Amino acid sequence: MTPKSPAASSMTLSQIMDDHDTNLMGTVHGGVLMKLVDSLAGVVSARHSEGPSVTVAVDEMVFRVPVRVGDVLHLHAQVNWAGSTSMEVGVRALADRWDRSVPPVHVASAYVVLVAVDDTGTPRAVPPVLPETDDDRRRFGEAQIRRAHRLARRTAIESSRRRTA
Question: How far apart are CA 7 and CA 114, in angstroms?
């Protein structure tokens, strides 16, 4: 398969947040933001892999500051890394405050792991990522670190369960 640059499938989604999106604190519910992150990651991974994909893990989701009603939320996503069938998509969320009182605020970041699937739900091959910029190369390397940690954690947990069973 021909490698693809992160820019080839990157995408930005913008949405005005309204009072239907709020939690009991009067700010945007984290679950609303998570849904948008997952949806955008799915589109970006489908573009990269040229077909459907499914979320298998949210490696990290960090909420930095609250999103408020009236904010214009901008989510930018790109494929940071790809293996044989899986991909890591990084998503960064910025909020433009409705009153423009401050520059756009970095409100959240997430790393979503998705697996490309065929019509029967069986994993299928994906193109490698070809990092082009220094930021692409940094993201690629950091994604490899997150993957190694995910796999080591899984192995340690499985080993612990075998010992206690």
Answer: 18
Mean pLDDT for the chain overall: 96
State in words which class domain 6-164 has. alpha beta
pLDDT over 80 (residue 43): yes
Q: What is the pLDDT of residue 102?
A: 86
Residue-wise burial string across 76-103, b where 16 or more C-beta atoms lie within 10 A, e elsewhere: bbbbbbbbebbbbbbbbbbbbeeeeeee
End-to-end Cα distance, the chain: 43
* Tokens (6 digits) for 1: 């398969």
Domain positions in the chain: 6-164
pTM attached to this predicted model: 0.93
- Measured CA to CA, the distance from residue 23 to residue 30 in angstroms comes to 8
For the chain, how many residues are written? 165
100: left (phi over 0), alpha (psi -120 to 50) or beta: left
72 vs 95: CA distance, rounded Å:
6
